[in-house]
Structure formats: C-alpha cells, structure tokens
Write a structure and sequence with these properties.
Layout: H1 2-35, H2 44-67, H3 82-115, H4 127-155
Helix pairs in contact: 1-2, 2-4, 3-4
Length: 160
C-alpha cells in the first residue's frame, strides 16, 4: 500500500509541475496582449489561468499535507520524545481531517452543482474545476491516514 501511495504522490508532483508550466502560457499571452497591438486580447486566457490556478492550489495543498509542510503551526515547544512528537502529529492530523471532511461534504455538492454548468469562454464543464476541492479532500484523507497510522505505531511502541 505504501508503494501505491508513494507512486500516487509522485504522480501528483509531476501533475503539479505540468500545470505550473501550462499556467505560464495563458498568463504570458495576457501580458503580451496587454502591451502590444499585434496580438488580440484573449478573453479565454483569464479563465484558463483561473482554472489552472485552482488546481495548482489544491494539488499543492495535498502535497504539503503529505510532506507536513503546511497546516502545521508550532505553538508548543518541540517534544523531546518520539512518542510525544507522534501524539502532537496525531492532533494536527485530526484537525486536517476535520478540514478534509468539510472539503468532502461541500466539494461534493459544489461538483454536482458545477456538472450542470458550462463555462462560457472555454466551453469546459464547470465540474472540472469544482472537482478540485472534492479531490483535494479525498487526497488529504488518504495522506493523513497514512501519517496517522505511522504516528499510532510510534505511540504504541511499534515504529515502522
């Protein structure tokens, strides 16, 4: 299971890289069109940039959850024992699960709502954009479950 999750994580990293590269295209077109008269002002570029940016944020947040580089604020001093460190990580994981539940609940409704709509400029189904929130919630649950199991193993004396 760890191998599958690790492969999925690398796929997300690759996808994030591709989306960042793709974001450069509409943004560059917007900038060039703004300052030259030779290129027409493309309206679809703004919407494409917005769609890409939303997916970049959600995939980036997912990667940050897995790497523990986001949603983690140091309020208390660093614990000295691995067991207390694992307990602290488990508390953070529970907080992330609450946020993931909100994303799952509202993301589902948001995606269903978007399914019946089409973007006027790009012609893309809006569920394509709205699903980013639902998929982020699912990803957070998967990665938090992976981390929580590792923390529980440390707490109960069976580090992996």
């Amino acid at each position: 299971m760890k191998t599958i999750i690790e492969a999925y994580f690398h796929l997300l990293q690759f996808l994030l890289t591709v989306l960042l590269f793709l974001l450069v295209i509409p943004v560059t077109l917007q900038i060039v069109a703004r300052y030259t008269e030779f290129i027409p002002r493309y309206i679809w570029t703004e919407e494409a940039a917005r769609f890409l940016f939303i997916w970049i944020i959600m995939i980036g947040a997912t990667i940050a959850v897995r790497e523990r580089t986001h949603f983690d604020v140091d309020i208390l001093p660093k614990p000295k024992s691995p067991r207390w460190k694992a307990i602290g990580e488990l508390v953070v994981d529970c907080a992330i699960l609450v946020i993931a539940a909100v994303f799952l609940l509202y993301g589902w409704g948001y995606t269903v709502f978007g399914y019946g709509q089409t973007s006027e400029l790009t012609g893309m189904n809006m569920a394509t954009m709205h699903a980013a929130f639902l998929i982020a919630g699912v990803n957070w649950v998967v990665f938090v479950a992976e981390r929580a199991l590792a923390a529980l193993a440390v707490i109960f004396g069976n580090p992996q």
